[in-house]
Structures are given as C-alpha cells and as structure tokens.
## 1
Amino acid sequence: MKIFPKLNANRRTILLATWGLFAGLTLLMISAGSFSTLLGIRAELENLPTLISGGITTAYYAGFLIGSWYSLRALRSVGHIRVYAALTSLLSASIIVTGLFDSPIVWLIMRVSTGLCLAGLYVIAESWLNGMAENHYRGRLLAVYNVVTIGAWGLGQLLVFNFDARNIGGYAFAAIIASLAVIPVAISEQATTPEIENHLHLSMRELAKIVPTGAGTILLVGLAHGGILGMAVIHATREGLSVGRIGVLVAVLQLGGMALTWPISSASDDIDRRIIGLLCCIGVITLAGVMISQPTASNWTILLMFLIGGFSFPLYAIGGAYTNDWVSPEQMGAAASQLVTLYGVGAMIGPLVAAPFLDIAGEQGFAWSIISLHAVVLLFLVYRIRAWHAPMTTKHWDDVSFHGRAFFIPATIVSLGVNRRGQSTRQRRQTEEQQPQQ
C-alpha cells in the first residue's frame, strides 16, 4: 500500500525526514496516556466531586490554550527541534511533580503544565507535517500522525493496570518514557523541518473567514472529544470496574481511532471531507445509541467503544486536512497553532458539558453525552455542506482509492439527502425573490 501515491521519490524523503518525529511522538503519547489515566483514577479514588474531577481535565485543556499560543512564538525564534526538546523535558518534570504530591491544587497546576506541553508538541508536529504535505495526500499523512498519536496514547492507557494510581511508580514510568522521547528527534541525521522564516501571522478571525468549516469543525470536535476522554474514566470508575478494566475501556477508544483513521482519512482525500465527517458522526451516534442498552462491564460495550473511537477520532484529521487545503503554505504554521487552540477551547468545555449527563442519567449518561456532542458536530457539517456546495469528488473513478470507493455509496446517499433539502430551500427563496417581478 502506498502511503504517498504518485510521489514515490518524495515519499522516501518525507519518511526519512519524519521518522524521528513519529518515534518521539510514540513515546510521548505512551507517557501521556498512562499519566492521564492514572490521574483520572486517582482523582476518583480520592472521591473528588464530579465538578473537581472534570475541572482537572479542564485544566489540561486550559494549558492547551497557552501552549498553542506560546509554541508558535518559540517556533519562529528557535525552530521545531529545540522547542520539541524543551517541551518534552517540561512534560517529564510535570508528571513527576504530580506523583509526588497528594493535592488536587497541585494536580490542577500540573495538568495545566502538561496541557501546555502537549499542545505545543502537537503544534510542532502538525506544522512540521503540513509544511511537507500536498493536498492530494495530506489526509493520508495526517492519518499516519493520528494513528501514531492515538494508538500510542491507547497503549499507554493499557499499561496502567501494572501500577497503583496512588503510588509514584506509575508516574515515574510515564516521566521516564517522556524523557526518552527526546532521543529520536535529537539524533536523527535525516530530520528535515520546514522553513519557518516565511510563516505568516493568521488570526483566529482570519482563519474562520478563510475556512469557516475547518475552524468550526475542530472547535466542535474538541468539545466532543473532551467530553468523551474527560468522562470515560470517571464513568467506568463509578460503575465499579477494576483498574485494568478501566484501562481497557478507555484504551479501546484510542485503538479504534488508530484502526479506522487511515481508511477514513484516505477516503477524505478522494471524497468531500465534510461528507466523510458527516458519515462518521452518524456512525458514532448510532453506536452510542446501541450502547445505552449495554451494561458498562459488558464485552459488547468494549466493542462499541472501539467503534465509537474509530469513527470519532478521525474527525480531527478530517477537519485539519480540510483547513490546510484552503490556507497558503506560509500560513500553515499559524493555522496549526490556531487549530490546536480551537480544539483546546472545545475540549476544555467538553467535560463540563458532559459531566451533568452522568449525574442526571446515571449509567446511560455517558452514552447520551456522546450522542449529544456528536449531534452538534453533525448539524454543523450539514449546515456547511448546504451553505457551500462542492462536487462530492473531483477525481476520475479510476483514480479513487479503495477506501474512497468503499465510502462512495453512503457518501452519495448522504450528499443527495443534504443537498436536496438545500436545493429545495434555494429554489423556494428564488421563487419568492422572483414573485414581485412577475
């Protein structure tokens, strides 16, 4: 299978230039996945109120806002690799400090710090990759990035059953893994980063004006993902699952995203990305509806969570690829920073929106929060498809990938349904406008 079709020579160059980045990201995500799950379990073991537990997750995404802003400034000053090394070192120290103190206030502060670090690392990675990608394979390249980050995060969550969340051992393990993540990037002789001298400033308002669909999608996807990831551990802990089972339940969300990100992102390179995103939202809502009738400890719930993650997590890659399809190469670094900021804003609010569902609806509240948050994304995409019409695909059938062909029939059905309603509305408006002239 060709990761970068029609660019065989360039494919080797890009792989050599990015292998150190992907190796380092793998280690970072294993560390972050272990740490976030351990802290979530620890907060529940301390019987913290839902609002405070959700607030710890919110603090993480508050750090996102700071990190996405600061990292772009640092990137312009000292370059990708040096910022990457500095943020990785700070991440390792923050994890250790969290394990040393038994104080929710310290945990909140350190979650801000880890959010800052990871947001900055995401900006560095996405700026690095988008600066090397072209539109016709950007979705595939970002799919590799998503597979690495989501899969490694899930692997880190699976490792938590080896540790007691109240002891420092698990946090020390996560800090060591984070420290090792500097090595692949620092020693790679082939590591080539994009030029940063010509990166242009791009405000949030300018980005929303250029690509309203991309900006809005990333914001709402952050809201949905923040709700899922912020409440999954809390929900599972309240239902009495063991630490190992909690790790599995949360990890399968990430592993599902890893499994389906490639085919879904690949299809979005061939078919209107908005329609692919719409299909993903329909899939998540349907699966979460089925999950309402399943007990949390059921093996069917594990499978459903795997599929929900598989359809939900590619939405970020789709929104990011769509945005970078429309911005200039000089704006990609700033766009990456703004997208991480938008995602962080949404994800910061997500746990606070999802938490009441758990208190009101009990065991079914988690599934209802997933349905509600993804319904918002779905409605926004429907609105944007109707507001800005584009051909479902601009490629000849022979050039459409296997994954694009697999999505073609459902995408056609959805496209016809959405555009037919939009067409009826336009025709009615045109008739009303013409009536006074008749």
Note: Confidence is low (pLDDT under 50) at residues 1-9, 424-438.
## 2
Amino acid sequence: MSGAAIDAVAARAPRPGLSELVREWGRIGCIGFGGPPAHIAMLHHLCVTRRGWLSEHEFEDAIATTNLLPGPASTQLAIYCAWRLRGIAGALIGGLSFIVPGLILILSLAALFLADSPPQWVLGAGAGSGAAVAAVALQAAASLTPASWRRAAAQPRWVLYALAGAISAATIGAWLVLVLLACGALEVTLRRAQPNHRTAGIYAWPLLAAAAAPTGGLLALSWVAFKVGALSYGGGFVIIPLMQHDAVDTYHWMTDGQFLNAVALGQITPGPVVHTVAVVGYAAAGLGGALLATTIAFAPSFSFVLIGAERFDRLRTNPTVRTFLDGAGPAAIGAIAGAAIPLAGALSETWQFVVLATAALALFALRRGVVLTLIAAGAIGAVASTLGAPLPR
C-alpha cells in the first residue's frame, strides 16, 4: 500500500476504544522482544499498516520527535501513539499496557536470580548471560554509530565527545550524566546557539539532584532511576554506565555479577530495556524499591508526552535541541562502548571470557540477534555449572 493510500485510510479509520488500546499495546508489551527496533516495527504495523489509525507521515514525525527526547524512545513512541488516538487517557492506558507485562516478568526473574540461595543452574545461567553483556554493549554502540556520524556537524568534535563519554563510563560512571550534559552544552556554545532560559534550566537542575544523591537510601535509588528515565541520551543501553557505578561500587546494592544479570534480564525480557532499573531497585530495597525505581524511571516519558505532545512539532525543528543532541548523542554512544570495559572487568572465571568471545563472534561476525545470543550464553552457563565449572564469587 502506498504512503498516500495509507494516509487516506488513516484519515477515515475509526479511533480505537480504550479496551482495544489495552489489548493491542499489551500484546506488544508481551511479545516485544528485541528492543526499540522491534517495538517501532510492531507499532508501525499496528497503527499504520494494519489499522490505519495514523498516517505514514504522522508516524515518521513521531519517531523523529521521540528520538530527540532523553529516556527510552520506544516507550515514548508507544505513549505518544496512544495519545494521538485517545488523548491523555489513551497515553496512560497505552503506556502502562506496554510497560507492565515485561515488568511483571522481569521482577519474577529478579526474585529468582537475586534470591539468597538460588539453584546452581540459575547461578550458572546468570553467569553465562552476564558474560555476554560486554559484547552486547559494543554491538549496541556500533549499531548507533553510523547514523550519528553522518549527522555530525563537525566529525572531529564527534570523536572528542565519543571519547569523553567512553572514558567517563569506564572511570567515573556515577558522574557520566554531567559529561553528557557538558558535551551537549559545549556543542551549543560552539555553534553559537543561545539557549533560552528554560533550556538553560534543563541543563542546570541535574546538578542539584546529583549533589543530593550521595545521601544514599531511597533518595539515592530515586536519583539513579531518574537518570535512567530523564537524562539518558542515545538509546536504552546508555542506562548501563548510568547505573553500574552507583549500584555496585557506591551503594553496594548488587555485586558485579548481579548487575550483569540485571542487564541480561533487561535484554531477554519483552518491553523496554529500561526495565533493568527494576532489578536494581529490587536489589536495593526489595519489591517496593523495584516499583519505586520503575515509577521514577518511566514518569519522565509520560510527562514529556502529556505535557509537551502538542508542542512536539516545534521541538522537532528547534535548532538548540538538535545542536545539544549533536554533542550529547556521540558522548552517549561512547559511554555505551566504554561501559564494556567495567562489564568485562566484572568477569572472574576463565570460561566466562570464552563465552564473551563467543558472544562477540555471534553478534559481529555471524550477525545473530541480541536476545538469541544472551539466551544461548545463559544456556551455556547453566550447562557449565551443572558440569562443575566454577561460578563467580
């Protein structure tokens, strides 16, 4: 069907009821394995091709706009599409229907993997899938690089921003968000774009929250979740360096191995990759901590759409926003790649490095999918532990 024909169908297609939003967005939340590309494809098939609720042009504009926002872009796209169809009620119901199925599954798995005495095969599966995470991070950075490189206004600066993000993720992960913000602000300054008062405020208020975070407890957990939901530029995988240092080194909510498990669980479960934050919250403060972290991490996505959806056209063409992302985006990609260093450094057993090398081969040479690679790595770990292979301490 041509784009014009789809536009014509969309113009006269009846809008869905709220119960239909629950069913259709919930279905994507249940089967949405594969991260943002899979979610975008499913939403496009549902809203444009199959039901004609949105035109091709409307959907393309929605993708372009949500990609300008920090936080989980595919979640924001799901919320925005539901808002276009049924307003505020649609955004809330569609967004929750997309998020909740994967959240229930990942919390069930977190309870299993973070139990005081999990079965041996569970520990082995976690050690195996966790061993592959560093390769997945590199693959995620590699997949984001070409498009970002082509958009770069000055490619030498792109390299510098990416290096700044990579070095920061590998060394000072807890303060990575300030590096991302600084790269964006520097690009705005260098391009001689003057941010308005409101934009400057957006750059400044994270400093106040960062200063409060070291007090620990639920405030620290709230700050970590907030970074994930409101300050992550460049795709879902940038949440890894934003969380790792805090969760493992600063607040000791998790061990290195448990954090690797959390990242792997976020990849192999359906729905948003940001669900990883629920596992961190579970480790920090049980089920209540998981729900708190999840609520804070996803609240900005709902807020961006509910407050700003009617202004998205202006956002998409705002030169200051685009210039800021020209600096923050490459830094985020570098941070994803840099996160592979501490992720690989968290491995302690020889067989895990073999799994890591095998995963890299599968992802880069054989072009296998992330979900399949992580499940296979987990299966190898489960078998290895059953056969007596040593498990990480």
Note: The CA atoms of residues 112 and 118 lie 7 Å apart.
## 3
Amino acid sequence: MKIHRLILLVVVLLILVLTTMTTIKQSSDTVSARSAEAVTQVSDGNDGTTSAVAQDTTDKVDTDLYLDADTVEQIAAQQQADPAVTPSSRVPYSFKTVPIPLPGGIDHAVAGVATRNSGQGVIRLRGVPPGSTLVDAYLVWGEITAPPAAGYTVNFGADCSTGANVTSVVYGTAPQPCWNPNGIYAGHIVNVRAQIVAGINGDYRIRGLKSALTNHRCPWGDGTCAGPGNALTLSEGASLIVVYSNPCIPRAAQLYISLGPRMFFGKHTVNHPTAPAINGNLPNLKHSRIGADGQVGVLNCGLRAIPAITDERTWIQNAFNLNLIQIKGDGAGLNRDSDWNGYDGEPLNKLWDSHTDVFGSGAFLALGGGNSYNVIYQSQGDCIVWAVHILGVR
C-alpha cells in the first residue's frame, strides 16, 4: 500500500514538473516573439525608430546664454543706452525694454505643441506667478527638411488674434531622427518678446510652419489604413520659452540656456559648462528639456505603446563626482514618465516634448566647483533630438 502511494506521488510530481517546464517554455517563446516583433517594427527606420545597434555617444555643448538679475540689468543698460548692441549668442535676447532694477530674481517657463502634418498649433503657457515682470521670450521649432536649412517667416501671437510675422534663424542642424534619409533636422529660433501678453500666461498660436501635409493626419498608419508617408518637410513641433522676474525669486537665481540640436537613439551624455559657477547656496534646481520625435509606439497611429523601444530615461549628473539623480523614466523616484512620449501632441499628433522638473538643491551640482553638469539620456532605438536644455538654480 505504501509502495502504491509512493508511485502515485512520483507520477504526480513528474506531471507537475512537465507542466511547469511547458509553461516556462511557452512564456519564454512569447517573450522571444515579442522581442522579434519589436525588432521587425523598427527595422525599416522610417517611422522615427531604428533597429541599428546604438553606440554610446558623448558631447559637450557650451552655455549659449547665462542670466541672473545682475547680468540682465547690465545687458539691459547697454542695450538701452546703445540700441545697436546686438546679442553675442545663438539665443536672440533683447532687454531693451526691461525695467532697471528688476523686481527680483529670474526664472523661466516652457510650453510647446506638436505640429506634424499640421504646420500650426496652440501653445498653452501656464505657471508664471502673478506679479511677474517679463524679461524675454523665445520661440523655437524643429523640422525635418531638405538641406540646406534656412530661416523663414511664421505668424505668432495670442490665440484668436491676427498675430505678428516673425522670422527665424537656424541655430543648428543634426541628422534627421529616422524618418527620411534625404532630410536633416533643423532647429529654428526667434525672439517673440513683443508678442507676449500682459500677465505672460496665455494661449499662443503659431501658423505657417513648413509642412508637406496640413490635414492633421497622425504620423503612422492606423490598422489597415496606410500612414501618410514621409515627404519633406516634416514639421515636428514648437515651444515657447519665457524668462521672467518675480520678487519671490532669490535675486541670486541663475539661468543657463544651451541650444542643441543633437540626435541620439542609444545612451547619450551631454556636458554643459556653467560659467559663472553654479551657486550651491540656493535650494532648488529646475531643468527644462525641449526636443523632437518622442513617441510611445508606431502602431495604431502611434497609440499602441511598445516599451521595448520607448523606455527612455533621463538623469542629471554632477560632472565632478559623477553623482546623479534620475529625474524621468522607469526607476526614477521623481517621475516615471519618459521625457520622449510626444506629450506636447496628445492625443495626436505626437513627436514633440517640452518638460520641466524641479529636483535637488544647488549644492548637488555645485559640489566640486559647479563648473559644469551632465544630462544623460537612455533610448532603446527611438530616434530623438534634444533641441534645448535650460538649467535654473533658484
């Protein structure tokens, strides 16, 4: 009797082992199939992604414009005394109407809109505190265009107004982010201080961006419906950067603006020198990132997420001691969303992002001298262009 029970127990155990092994194999096959599917989806390289093996890339991009209250007042005094004084920067600043002295320290706000297959859109700027004084404002946009790239005129102003015609300059170009090999990415910038409304916050419309299509189609196919194609020019998006002063902001607050553009699809580290050095006595670090071609997927108008290729992560790093803080993406204690989901175009069109995060204190980046900081991105094959980085210390 005991022998029969033992035999029965062995048989049951063998059945359980075989069942478990089958389940594991099925699970493994499913994971492998999903990985193969993801590779297939990115292999053509004309939907904003690539299956190419990414090499780690590093770069060094100087600060294009440094501002604090003293610097703004100094430049304002020069420009107001001599209107012929022109910006010595890729950022077209103009402080000719800035009051001296400023009411407090300076800070910034950023908002954007995705413009693929539309060539226009509304930027909804929010978050500037009441009682703020406008210092300056810049409109930036990006597009995939046939070379050579050149500035051109668009219409910009408060929504529901006639707007004003403003003409950009191309501040830089980069390889196109995996849509059309005949194109390049071009970054445009223009000063729009005169178009900012009283109170600063508001809805601002941009019209007239170059775009092969203006019917507002999604950038990818939808089910059995084919996508719109990749004819140039492919408009990506536009962002408004506003610099303001407020009595609630410490007068010692600092602002470092760095212009790209740089394209990446793997791990990318960019070092930004900071002169004057970062002030370690201020309690907050505020970082904004503007960029092109972020997305969550390529299927069903890009609405079906593919984590295998859109699991991007962002770190800010002290360039001296290499201590870092992950500020975006899975694993981040601050915000698990990606910097590059095309949020400026939700639900459609995607492909443009403007993100701002507040983290840490000035001491984090000032330790060791505060003479530079790093931004580190990790992409998984989604081709991305960062266009502008802004570090605020306040």
Note: DSSP finds four helices and 19 strands in the chain.
## 4
Amino acid sequence: MLARYLVLAWVLLGLLPPSVSRMMAQETDPHIRVVVNLVQLNVAVTDDKGNYITGLRPQDFAITEDGIPEKIATFGEGNESARRLVDSDAEESKAAPSAPAEAGSPGGPQTLGSLVAGANVFILFDTSNYMYRGFVFAQDAIADFVRSLESANRIAFYSYSRDLSRGALLTSDRGKVLRAVRTTVAGDEAALYNTLLLTLKDAAQYTGRRVVVVFSNGPDNSSVVPPEDVAELAQSAGVSIYMISTQQARLEPVSTAVFERMTGATGGKAYFAKSWRDEKRAFASIRDDLAHLYYLSYYPQPNPNRGWRNITVKLVGSHMKKYRVRTRKGYRPQPGRYTADTTTAVQSEPAQEDRSDLPNSGMSRNR
C-alpha cells in the first residue's frame, strides 16, 4: 500500500521516469479484441455457351462493394484449398499471364467428383403430399447425387413438409446420409420457405464453401416466412441455393419466378424437371457447377453503409468481357456489439478471424 502511494506521489510531482510512466499507461490502457468479418464468394465463370472457364488467377478478378474496390484475401479454384494472398501477390504479378481454359481442356480439371473438395452441402428434400407420385424416383436421384460427391467435405440431409426434419447432420459419413434418404416418408403440406430458412441458419454456422440443394415438387402452401427474407439471409451468410423442382411448380408462375430470383441472387441455379431423368441431369449439373467454382473472399474496406451492400465481381481485361460471372449480389452486415468490460467486438457474420489484441484500437476494419 505504501509503495502505491509513493508511486502516486511521484506521478503527481512528475518525478517518475518516462519508461515507467509508459509501462503503467500500457497496463491501464484497454485492449480491444477486433473481430473482422470475411466476406466469402462462390464465383462461377462461363462463356456464352455455358462452358466453364478455368485457370483464372486472383488478379483476373475485380471486386467492389458499393463501388469501393476490395482486395482479395483468399483464393481457390476447384479442388485446391483456398490460399491466402498476403505475400503471394507480388510473385503472381511477375508471372506471365496465363490464358483461361475451358473445362475439359488439357489445362482444366479432369474429374468432377474430386473437384468438390472442401464443400459443405446441405440437401433439403420435399416430402410433402406433393411428392406421393414421384417419391421413389426422387430418392434415387438424391442418392446418386450423394454418391457422386465423393470428395465433398461434408453432406447434410434434411427433409421437410410442414416441419423440418434433420435426417443427417453435416457429416463425412456417406452411408449415414444415404440411410437418411431411404428412410424418408411422405408427409403433410409444404412449408418450403420456413424450412429453407432454418437450413440456411444451420449452414451459416460453418465457414468455407457452403451450398444448399433443394428438391421441391411444388409450390409452398403453408410458410409464414416470405421468400425475400430467405434470399436475403442466404446472401448475407454467403450460402448459394440450388433448386430442383418438377413441372408441378410451373403450374404457379409466381413460384417459378421466386425460385429463379432466389437462386440467381445467391449465385445458384434453378432447374425444372419434366421427368426423373431430368431430375438426375439437374443433380449432375449442380455437381458440375460446384466442381468449377472459384472461391474468393475479402475483408471489406471502411464503408459507412449499415444497410444492404451491393457486391460486384468483374473480370479484368478486354479479352475477358466475353465471359459471364455468376455470384451472390450482396449482403447485409450485422452491427458489432461492444462491451465496456471486455471491449470485444462481436459480429454475426459466419466467417470471422481474430485479429489479435490491439491496444487503444478503434472499431473493426469494416465498421
């Protein structure tokens, strides 16, 4: 106690050495742990015939958020693991430009199953009373799809009618997923948007490449959640939605338009199958699409916009203008929460990185 009073007296009299003063200031300064959100993008690049373009490099892409240029933090293609672009930018800029290749060419991927490595795939199966007629054929198509994703990281299988049933949580055990597919039974009315929202919330808990594949045999007739809210959550969480629906959905033009708008906004696709053969072809097309996605991410630059942020991804160079880019259109950031005692920034985006203790720092980079 006496020593503490002596130190206080020295401070008041200005007799304390500068080094000790700095040490005491550092000990009393608050340490703010900054959590910076990583915005993740699944990007498909095709030509005007729908062929996938492979072999592109990070510098071939330009990302803007609300018109603000962003710097790519991680990059990956196909089965390669996403790599950080911290020290590699200078080296890649010195490399000779490489021409993009179409899938199937000598420079492109050779197999499909191995190219889905690292993806977390959530399958949502319609088991409502719309499915009585083609139930077994749909199960076969889904089972074949599960088997074809041999190198995907993990797969979850959910089913829905009025309620959501989590038949197999996200797992690498294909046998468990297939058993869940085979044990589904047809049920009540369809609440597609309610259950899709719950599926997206599950997917949002994970990082990396995440997609939801929906098999629906008809329109939604019992949800209370509007499809616009579902699409916004998918975009904000960075989850792509692929939807396969039978011709039954075509009977309601509103459902058709909603399916196409929702999948397009998230960077996915919508398919309308006339037969069980079309269903299998649709699943094969989704597998092919997953196999050729580019994986990009970035830490947003300071942006005062607290609402919806528009994302634009373009290819750099006049020779790239003939190609088409498909990805999600934007996201809505969740506000950070700061507490006086811990001074810890907490964000609700699924992909977060702890940027270490920073003394006397301000807000997180993108807030």
Note: The radius of gyration is 25 Å.
